[in-house]
Description:
Blueprint: E1 12-16, E2 21-29, E3 34-38, E4 54-56, H1 62-76, E5 82-98, E6 103-104, E7 107-121, E8 126-141, E9 146-162, E10 172-188, E11 191-212, E12 215-231, E13 237-252
Antiparallel strand pairs: 1-2, 1-4, 2-3, 5-6, 5-7, 5-13, 7-8, 8-9, 9-10, 10-11, 11-12, 12-13
Amino acid sequence: MGSRDGIQKGQESLFSTEYISLAARAINVSRNFSLWKLSDKFARIPFVKEEFIVFTNNVINIQNEVPFIRERLKATVFEPKSYFKFKAFFTETIAESLSDTDEKINATRRGYHLEAVYEKDWGRTLSWGAGIRFDREIQTLQDPALEIPTTRLLGVGEINYNFPRFIDSKNNIYASVGFGYGLDKSIVDEREATGTAWAIPVIKLGLQTNELDKMNYLFEVVFETIFVEETFPDGQKQSTNQTNAKVGIGLKF
């Protein structure tokens, strides 16, 4: 800090940690740097390298300044936190094909998706999450007229990036990339086909709003690709690729 930061030669200021505060006077000031001398000649400097120190000009009202110093230090020092997230999505398949023939299926597929995730901070902007999700979809064929219900139970993982908060707000936009893997079951004309499903990649873009101190509301749009391999009772195998678009809401606490 120097004269461009408002430092003037001879001014007295306070340098504080959470546990101690020392008054010092600026004895030399340049544009970008300043040299300080402790006001108490018997004092010793207890600060250590890479320790966070709060600077303030309010030397007289030190008792009033201490709570603000603690708040600044708390905001400066990163403390990882963990959360739980519960979300519900409406889903629609925008493209679907049989992988063996790349033939597009003339059908609509809609449904819902429920998700529970444990999330833990991985830094100031990054976090990771792991959990489970349940899918329920109905594929409606036009020719022949047929409805095919599908259910899935997947384990999921994700990495999230939180963009900076909006000005004068606790709300922010976030993005994540993830995957899922688990069991799949479809019923085709009273025949049950079972198998496995990969959801990869799962790309999310969301808005996090902080309406309550310990509760966040989540709004998300999702695009994902799912690879399904199923086997019918007679041994017939079927592989399907589908691309889904989703919108959802959730809670984070």
